[in-house]
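INTERNAL AUDIT FORM
Audit reference: QA-55
Scope: verify that the stored structure record matches its stored sequence.
Auditor: D.O.
Record contents follow.
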Amino acid sequence: MASLPYLLVATLGLTVVTVATRSSFFMLPARIELPASLERALRYAPACALTAIIAQSVFARGGEAYVSVHNNQIWALLAAAVVFAKTRNMVAMMVVGMAVFTALRLWL
């Protein structure tokens, strides 16, 4: 368990960084405009963050890489990706991914 001062400093630091990065767009003068290439790049930030979260939970187990044919999460991810590529339907993607994962988990 981490010490209380460490947790307080870490929480304060994360708070300052989050507020500074999120509010900088509102605090900057209106005459300052972001380059078009940066604005285009920022559109992909949520998808990149979600991908990083999902990839870490699917391809790692116990802090180590776990890429195996026995990893049910990889098969569910692949099935969900195929469904989304064909249908572009988020609900169908989630249903198929969870169904494949649950079936594999119960079957194996």
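Auditor finding: record pair retrieved intact. The chain is about 75% helix and 5% strand.
Action required: none
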